[in-house]
Each structure stands twice: as C-alpha cells, then as structure tokens.
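Protein in question quoted in full.
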Amino acid sequence: MSQKPKQSHGLAVCPGCAEPLDSGDRFCGACGYDLSAVPAAGEGPDRPTVAIGTPVNWPDAPPREPGSLSTMTQHPGDLPGTDSGGHDLPPAAAPTEDFELAAPDPRAAVRVDDPVVAPAAAQAPAPVQQAPAPEAAPAPEEAAHGPALCVACRAGRVDTDGYCENCGHAQPRERDHMERELGGVAAVSDRGLRHHRNEDAFAVSSTTLADGSPATLAVVCDGVSSATRPDEASAAAAEAAGAALLAALPRGTHPQQAMHEAIVAASRAVNSLAEKAADGEPQRNAPACTIVGSVVADGLLVVGWVGDSRAYWVPDDRAAPAARLTEDDSWAAQMVAAGLMNEAEAYADERAHAITGWLGADAYELDPHTAAFKPDRSGVVVVCTDGLWNYAEGPEDMARVVPADAADRPLHSARVLVGHALDGGGHDNITVALVPFAVPPQGAGTA
C-alpha cells in the first residue's frame, strides 16, 4: 500500500480545538484532529479528512453541488496497511520524476474467478420484475417438528438424503438461497442458475454507537472460484468482519477505522483456513474471497473493500445522480486507470474479471480501501457481488433496477435485485445487501 510521505504541518495550534501542537504530531492529542489533512506550506488545500479516533463527532461536510456525495474520506493509502500476516507494510517509494504511463506489470498478483458471461451491452435493460425466489432451506425449528415439505410438489416429505420421497426433487441446500432482515438492513444471497454451489456470504446487523445513536452495517463476500474452498473463505470473512464491526462501533471507534479493522480481521480469518506446505509456507491457491462492506452511522456512509465486489449509492429521489462508491481491484480497472482502455473496452475483455486484490494467505499484501461520505439526501446503499452488478454495472443502471421503495422495504427490494440477475441469466452466485440512509428533513428537531 502506498503511503503519503510525512510532512511538517507547520501549525502552532490545532485547527479543531486550538490546543498547542508539536510540529511532528500526526494527530492532535486533545481532540484527535488529523493534521495530515492540513497542507504543508506552499501547497494547495488537501481533501478534508475525518479525524480518526474521535467518536461520533464528525466534521461538517464541505460545500458541494446539489445531489452530489460529499467525500469525507481518508485516501485509501492514508490508513496504515498490513500484510496478510498482520505486519505493518513498509512505506512505498516516492514516484520518480521520469514516471511514464505504462501497462500494469504482468507479473503482478492476479486471481481469476470463473468466467462470467455478461449480458450484451447494447441490449436495453430488462424491465424489473420480482422473480419468484427459490425457497429457502427449512429453518432449524421447522426441522425439529419433523421432515419438511418438498419445495417442488409441496406434498412429499424430504428424506434425510435431501430428496423428496414423493417426486424425487432435490431440495435446496442451506446456502443455495439465504435471506435476512435485521434492524432495517436486509440481504439476499442465491446460488444462481449456473453454479453448483453458493460461494457468496453476507453479514447484516444493527448496533448503537457510543452515544446511543443507531448504526447499521452490511458485509458481502464473494469466494474466488479458482481457489480451494471458496465457500468457506467467504463465510469466514463475512462472519469475522461483521463481528469486528459490532465490537468496535459501540466502543466509539470511528466507523471508517472500524471498517479498516474489520477487513483486517476478515483477512486473518481467511488466512487461517490455508493449509501449510512442507516448508511451512501457505500452499498456493489458498482459500480466497473478495469483501465489501458498508456502515451507516450518525450521518456518515462508510464503505470498505478489497477485490471487485461493489457498493453503490442510489438516492430516493431518482432525479438526483446515483454513484458507484468503490473501485475494483481488477485487471479491467487497472487498464482504465492506466489510460490504456476505456471502461467499455476493458470490461468487455475476457480478462476483465481477473482480480488483483483479495483476502487469502497467498495474497502478497493486504490493502484495505476505505472511504466515507456525507450524502445530502436520503437513499440506499447497494452492497453486492459481481453476480448482481454484471447485470447493472453503471450507477444509472443500478438505480434503474432498485425499487423506488427500497429504503422502506429493503428485503423485498433485495429479492427484486436477485430476481433481476436471475432473469438476466444468473451466471454467477448473486448476493446483495441494502442499507438505507436517512437524512432528517430540514428544520426537523426536538420540540
């Protein structure tokens, strides 16, 4: 992970609380203000930065255009990175003066997921329908009262081998179709129509911050199909990240820092699945997955990710623009960033879904990306794997298929989105979580 070179802020007092400062301070000892956000003498103003470590006392958003998302964010390299063993990464070398635009190093780490047959870009998006979702596996309490009914004929009993005694239809496994709604946040995951198992996983929950205000969170993970035990990797990562967020947020940890720590925890959980080779090093092709998460808390919208799972912002007012909140760690994204292809060309290439960042013991280094935003209107955060966004790639495409009442009916809307991907072909596992973001009406307050 690249890091900014250290610089002297040249301030005598903290801009946040006016307490005296030492020239080498990274944060104000009194209020936690991030002094690296202050430009050095002679430099232009830097992007505003959230003060890490200051619980539930977020800075005001800077002026912005109506309908825009104000980025109140650490640059992805500003938070200290760790490698897959949990050790600090060495600082990156400063760029040379004779830097030239070049293709990404072909020797760089790349993992290839199963090829995805995306719908033709020229085709108009299909009308949104609520496709009937596959029946979920029987809940444990139902199983305790006897054999479950067959999901196909609804008459026969399901035998212990998972087949109907009446019609012989194979029943869905527990992970073939999963749904959960909790505290206003909801998620749906489906095996899709082409894969033999579901290698996605999710965690959704709600909690409170240190001051008692509510927070909702969602984590979505996509197992790398070319790796061993990808279903175990995604499940371990989602569980670890969700648990880390639930532990950190009530303690007063800043949501962006909590997200960073959650991704590190998820990485360690996936690393622990790797078997050791004879030399004690992790075997190649170790269990691996991508991760993306979102936290909505006290006016902030925080996202974090590694890999090519994505988060989108879709406002309730569809006249306002939607936005993609994440940048893929993928071959296609590298091509676009290097200026070698436009986005349409890159994502049409067969190498588009080769990922350059993932969680796993054979990843070269862990580079968690985090960003925080202050939307100026209500909406919903769409947290999803590529099994969905392949069928609604652009922000405007995603906004078109998200139901208008998604913030009020997140579970229903997540089912609609999964149905949209299934209607499009369901070539991959599909997982989507919806996290509503509410902005109080102007003038609202306590009487």
Observations:
- The chain has eight helices and 15 strands.
- The longest strand covers residues 214-223.
- The helical segments are 140-143, 230-248, 255-271, 331-337, 343-348, 386-389, 395-401, 410-423.
